[in-house]
């Protein structure tokens, strides 16, 4: 009886440690205690709206990953140098972020979802580590297969998004 209880206790402790480790790796830093950035309230609003319309149904890691892409674009030198510029950018094939297509302003209807993604945006702007996407500057859902994806290196699949960065794709055959 004792050995069975000891095994259950060890298994419970191991599961708790694993869960705590996973949770800590995705935890959001307190924006007030993080290093200050040059972001404005308008930049926060643009990032939070982009996360709301592009990733509100994603798990926390998926929302953080989309925020990474937007910040990676801003910092890359190949896209606009502001978050609002990145999310509102047009292009040859249309807009860069699908919620901005057609110039329609969409209403935020789920306030609790917006508050969640706003916290992700605040943490990202406060300097949260960008370690989920491998430097990705592009993403799409598996429901589409954009032609540009063949020109880039796939870095991650998180939630319902596939992430890419510039560079020749290194496709690996799967048998």
UniProtKB/TrEMBL annotation:
Residues 57-164 form the Cell wall hydrolase SleB domain. GO terms for molecular function: hydrolase activity. InterPro entries: Cell_wall_hydrolase_SleB, SleB_dom1. Keywords: Hydrolase, Signal. Residues 1-19 form the signal peptide. It comes from the Bacteria. This is Cell wall hydrolase. It comes from Paracoccus suum.
């Amino acid at each position: 009886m004792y050995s069975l209880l000891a095994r259950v206790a060890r298994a419970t402790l191991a599961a708790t440690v694993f869960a705590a480790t996973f949770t800590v790796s995705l935890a959001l830093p307190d924006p007030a205690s993080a290093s200050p950035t040059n972001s404005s309230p308008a930049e926060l609003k643009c990032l939070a709206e982009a996360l709301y319309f592009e990733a509100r149904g994603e798990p926390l890691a998926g929302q953080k990953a989309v925020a990474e892409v937007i910040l990676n674009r801003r910092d890359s030198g190949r896209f606009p140098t502001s978050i609002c510029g990145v999310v509102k950018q047009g292009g040859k094939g249309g807009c860069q972020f699908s919620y901005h297509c057609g110039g329609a302003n969409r209403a935020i209807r789920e306030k609790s979802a917006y508050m969640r993604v706003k916290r992700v945006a605040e943490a990202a702007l406060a300097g949260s580590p960008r370690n989920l996407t491998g430097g990705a500057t592009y993403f799409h859902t598996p429901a589409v297969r954009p032609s540009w994806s063949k020109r880039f290196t796939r870095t991650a699949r998180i939630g319902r998004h596939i992430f890419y960065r510039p560079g020749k794709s290194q496709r690996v055959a799967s048998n």
